[in-house]
């Protein structure tokens, strides 16, 4: 390994819906984490890899840190908070406001227990006037001793190079953990399940998404390798939700399936035959067994 080659683990933390997944996708230049404007989109710790001549960064996109309402929520917060201990650098993403609410104060408490460099990323600066950005920076400077503060707009993809440069600055020399062409350690099936869930989140009403999970029942590549047959089940908590997800004459499920298939084909770079079903599992988010069954295992945290 070249002298000066740096590597390490970097976590992206923040309250739900501040743009962590959008930023991570921009940093690695490929969509891995699902994005939606609904909270609690990311449920697992998603590991992605960025490699260039300077070194290798393994990004951990975590669920938003929030006050848990059920066992799934507790799992998500545990995942997010545990990663603070396991990484070399912390990227804390916030929205551009001078008001620091209870959610961000809770994160500050968690950060005070760590000796890791914390880079504050003020996201969505395209939503405020330039003159207001300085006031936001000044407000956050008062509450924590940040290694760096970087204002960005993840949605517009600006300042990507600055974030990477500052992240490398705080990493130590180290080995290359993954091959240069590795983008993620997530199994294909898990990413496919997440892409289906993303499309369901985009298409459905506010009250349903929290109670959605996706289970991949079958994932088979046909003999000649040109088509992948995928069977998946969308799990919801109520019979009334099932009707909404299916839609009139199956229209909503068809819409979710069409949008998901497009994304999955881009991800796999293959034609996909996608079959979707909907099942009701009442209160699955409070069942340890079902949470584990749908890919959220506390033992793996």
How would a crystallographer describe the biggest sheet? 6 strands, mixed
Structural class by secondary-structure content: alpha/beta
Euclidean distance between termini CA atoms: 31 Å
Spell out the helices and strands N to C. Answer: EHEEHEHEHEHHEEHHEH
In quaternary terms, these chains amount to single chain
Number of E strands: 9
What global shape is seen? globular
Task: Quote the beta fraction.
Answer: 15-25%
User: What is the residue-averaged pLDDT?
Assistant: 79
**What is the overall number of helices?**
9
Task: Describe, in plain words, how this protein is organized in 3D.
This protein is of the alpha/beta class and 301 residues long. 35% of the residues lie in helices and 22% in strands. The protein contains 9 helices and 9 strands. The strands form 2 sheets. Strands 2-3-1-4-5-6 form a 6-stranded mixed beta sheet, sandwiched between helices. The chain has a 3-stranded mixed beta sheet with strand order 7-8-9. The radius of gyration is 20 Å and the shape is globular.
Structure summary:
The protein contains nine helices and nine strands. With 301 residues, the chain is of the alpha/beta class.
């Amino acid at each position: 390994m070249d002298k000066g080659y740096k590597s390490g683990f970097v976590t992206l933390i923040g309250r739900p819906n501040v743009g962590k997944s959008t930023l991570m996708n921009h940093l690695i230049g490929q969509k891995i984490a699902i994005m939606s404007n609904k909270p609690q989109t990311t449920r697992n710790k998603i590991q992605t890899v960025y490699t260039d001549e300077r070194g290798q960064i393994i990004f951990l996109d975590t669920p938003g840190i929030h006050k848990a309402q059920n066992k799934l929520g507790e799992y998500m917060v545990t995942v997010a908070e545990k990663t603070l201990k396991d990484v070399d650098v912390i990227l804390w993403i916030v929205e551009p406001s001078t008001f620091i609410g209870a959610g961000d104060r809770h994160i500050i408490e968690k950060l005070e227990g760590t000796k890791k460099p914390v880079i504050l990323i003020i996201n969505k600066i395209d939503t405020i006037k330039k003159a207001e950005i300085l006031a936001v920076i000044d407000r956050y400077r008062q509450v924590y001793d940040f290694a760096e503060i970087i204002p960005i707009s993840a949605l517009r993809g600006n300042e990507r190079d600055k974030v990477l440069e500052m992240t490398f600055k705080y990493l130590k020399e180290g080995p290359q953990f993954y091959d240069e062409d590795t983008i993620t350690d997530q199994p294909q099936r898990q990413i496919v399940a997440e892409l289906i869930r993303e499309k369901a989140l985009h298409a459905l009403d506010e009250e349903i998404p929290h109670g959605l999970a996706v289970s991949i029942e079958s994932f088979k590549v046909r003999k000649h390798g040109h088509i992948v047959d995928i069977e998946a089940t969308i799990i919801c908590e109520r019979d009334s939700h099932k009707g909404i997800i299916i839609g009139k004459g199956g229209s909503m499920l068809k819409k979710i399936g069409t949008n998901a298939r497009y994304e999955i084909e881009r991800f796999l770079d293959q034609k996909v035959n996608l079959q979707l079903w909907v099942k009701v599992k009442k209160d699955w988010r409070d069942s340890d067994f079902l949470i584990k069954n749908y890919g959220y295992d506390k033992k793996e945290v």
